[in-house]
Amino acid sequence: MSQFAPLKNDLILRAAKGEKVERPPIWIMRQAGRYLPEYHEVKGKRDFFECCRDAEIASAITIQPVDHYDGLIDAAIIFSDILVIPQAMGFEIDMIDGKGPVFRDPLRSPEDINKINLKPDVKTCLDWAYKAITLTRTKLNGRVPLLGFCGAPWTLLVYMTEGQGSKMFRFAKQWIYEYTKEAHILLQAITDSLIEFLAQQVVAGAQMLQVFESWGGELGPIEFEEFCLPYLKQIASRLPKRLEELDIKEKIPLTVFAKGSWYALDDLCEAGYDTVSLDWTYRPEDAVKVVNGRRITLQGNLDPGIMYGSNDTITTKVEQMIKGFGGGKQNYIINFGHGTHPFMNPDKIEHFLKECHRFGLQ
Ligand code: 1CP
Q1: Is any ligand 1 atom within 6 A of the Cβ of residue 212?
Q2: Minimum-distance ligand 1 atom for the alpha carbon of 149
Q3: 240 ligand 1 Cβ < 6 A
Q4: DSSP result, 3-27
Q5: Assuming Cys at both sites, which of 123, 236, 272, 280 could form a disulfide with 337, CB separation 3.0 to 4.6 Å?
Q6: Which InterPro entries match (predicted)?
Q7: How far is CA 338 from CA 76, 182, 335, in A?
């Protein structure tokens, strides 16, 4: 018997598996975070990664949006970051207020690979992440499912080589175009670690998983096929085998979010994922056409910037979106096309969520 309480709301798991649902489930990328005053209260002056590593704090922050929007949100996502895999491989990262993550010693030439650990023991060195998941799932007490996640290999290669977010991707591009062989070695090593990391998150209690390829759109279609897709496919095909080895019996839905890679939607539908998450550059009707009856659930895709519009605008856009995805009673999960921003008004988000419920039930 499971150590956790039975789920009272399993809408998102049913939608991800392609079942008919009474309304489309909703969660929001970066739903825990800086736009919520209670986040700042709990975080205080503590370092970001210190909060992730403290199971009490991480679980409290994870549950904040579920409490704040009581009954309006259908999943929690563990408070952590995609950069914990680079940390496991030996990178030191500072989270700088107002700037984001900065790596102390990014990879600038193939020899630099020797400075990192390509085969970290992610079960041991990220044990804090699993403890946070187990505690959060216990505290959630079955209210909504808990999502785990990771960054995709190319996106993590970008951070490992650039050292931070980028506009020009000078170093990441040098890796793929000049140090191509070594870039593949790195991507493969990251992939191996990610599979174990995702599997251990499930062992700890994660009930659905998302892979964030946030920098996918920096590559053209041909490069996406070489540097993203094969690794995304490996994750989807090897993870279930690893979960089987770990004696996980239930099916764990897997989502891929490749921001900006609109050209890859057809390929992503064949990549082994249950759910494909879309940014706001897709017209929902067009995405549904590309899916063309395949057993894929789409997730997305409201421009988060719409939260800066009036409540009436939000209402109109929610209606358009849900209609565009065919009403949302099957194969659809509502989300933003990317994460919340720190400047957003929590009340606007509440209006968004309520309108999603209203139109989703129609
Ligand atoms: O509710 C949640 O979603 C919280 C969990 C979460 C997730 C899923 C956080 C907390 N980060 C992420 C994923 C993440 N981290 C991604 C993929 C999603 C996306 O594209 O946004 C990426 C690219 C990162 C890297 C990262 N971490 C950035 C972006 C840097 C850049 O390149 O511009 C930033 C700012 C962070 C820090 C971070 N992670 C999470 C939060 C709440 C914050 C802000 C930290 C703070 O100052 O309090």
Answers
A1: yes
A2: 8
A3: no
A4: SSPPPS--HHHHHHTT---SS--B-
A5: 280
A6: UROD/MetE-like_sf, Uroporphyrinogen_deCO2ase_HemE, Uroporphyrinogen_deCOase
A7: 16, 30, 8
> Is the pTM above the cut of 0.95?
yes
The highest-level CATH class for domain 11-361 is alpha beta
Evaluate: CB of 81 within 6 angstroms of ligand 1.
yes
Domain boundaries, the chain: 11-361
What number is the ipTM of this complex? 0.92
> How far does CA 257 lie from the centroid of its chain?
7
CA angle 160, 255, 154 (to 5 degrees): 20
* Pocket perturbation via mutation, ligand 1, pick of 42, 50, 81, 171 by most ligand atoms within 8 A of CB: 81
CA angle 166, 167, 173 (to 5 degrees): 75
pLDDT one-digit tens code per residue, 125-173: 999 999 999 999 999 999 999 999 999 999 999 999 999 999 999 999 9
pLDDT tens string 29-71: 999 989 999 999 999 999 999 999 999 999 999 999 999 999 9
* Residue 32 CB less than 6 A away from ligand 1: yes
